What does this fold into?
Amino acid sequence: MNKYDYIILGGGIAGSLLAWQLHLRKKSFLLIDNEDPHASSRVAGGMINPITGKRLVLTWMAEKLYDFNHRFYPRLEKSLGVPFYRELPLRRVFKNAAQANDWLVRCRQADYRPFILNDGDETSLFGIKTPFGYGTVLGAAVDTVPLLNALHAVLGNSYRKTNITYDEIKPAKEHIRIGELACQKLIFCEGWKATANPWFSYLPFNPCKGDVLKIRAEISQHTGIAAGVFLLPFGDHFRCGSTYIWDELDCTATEQGLRTMTRQLENILSVPHALLEHKAAVRPTVKDRRPFLGRHPREKRFYIFNGLGTKGLSLAPWFSRHMADYLLGHGGLMPEVDIKRFPLPSI
It folds into this structure.
């Protein structure tokens, strides 16, 4: 029997970065993933944007997360030897005069100023319709597939590609057994499929399907665009996302999704575009928009690190460290993310 201190089920951005944190601490662990090409971490558009929504709201923990990610991702790139991270300006195109006015208000607020750029580079907006103007936000793009593939390769024997069913998981007093594997602590990082997890399905997940396109268009490769949909440059193409579908929880890229995205693109592009690829995935979004971290209230060897939702690439680095510290007994969890905020229903 192969024994580990920790087994992590799910090798998306959450599980993989948690595994990386345990790797840095030289702990005994195994990361297990089935490498589903339709997993949300592999389909993700890749945008990190600190100012979002119709009202141009600063995202939760924006300053702390930016400072951490600004150091973490370049260091991870160096360790893995693969480029996947790029900081770049995001042009936030205003939909109407009210939104343009909201931007002026934000520019005067101290907590927003670190994320607002005033570079005045009009040439980067060639091919983009801006009838109400735009503002520039300090953002980033993450290419998740090379990140995950390289990280899994570096983990070596601490990573395994396989499928695990819930029936194979046998909790016992001294350890948890999964076939020929055994561990002291089992961490579930399964994304939206945790809605079927027999131990954690009581948590209020609110999964959301999204479409992502790969397109080619003659616009600047030096900036991203946020205009209801986003456009991020990756080499000779752009990634474009995304739709928000709450009642169709599958990973099928549909004609309806393509029509919706095409219509949105035509609203912001004044130049032609060519479609290269269309994918869809389901995000592990949460009703209160805060991640799920913590230990099961009854099965004390079972843990969860999930629910990072649409902000996963921004949240995962800091919270993977937070979760690793908790697993190792180096502190408690933030109340905002601890699953204790959702009591286990009585039987």
User: Anything to note?
Assistant: The chain is about 25% helix and 30% strand. The chain has a mean pLDDT of 95.
